[in-house]
Specification:
With 99 residues, the protein is α+β, with helices and mostly antiparallel strands. 67% of the residues lie in helices and 18% in strands. The longest helix has 38 residues.
């Protein structure tokens, strides 16, 4: 079992330090508190078995970004269709004016 600081754990899992602290206090993550240089330092016990369970619970940022990209792709398609429709309207109006 490895020991990691809260900050290192947060960076590794791309979480905020606040969320990692909540996980520690709720008991989702095993941790130990040590006295170093007159202050308490919390270390998270890093275990491969428990990490797999925790990673499943964490909502990946990538999926959220993928949803945003899909929404933007849909909006882009709608805009392209509207531009095509407007171009057709402009052509019709040009023909009507030139006659």
């Amino acid at each position: 079992m490895e020991r990691m600081t809260i900050k290192a754990y947060a960076v590794k899992h791309k979480l905020s330090i606040f969320n990692v602290m909540k996980m520690v206090r709720s008991g989702k993550v095993k941790s130990e508190v040590f006295q170093e240089k007159g202050r308490e330092v919390t270390y998270i016990l890093y275990d491969e078995k428990s990490e797999k369970e925790i990673e499943e619970q964490i909502i990946p940022i990538a999926t959220m970004e993928n949803k945003k990209e899909m929404q933007m792709d849909e909006e882009l398609k709608e805009i392209k269709q509207e531009v095509q429709w407007l171009r057709k309207e402009v052509e019709i109006l040009k023909k009507a004016i030139s006659v």
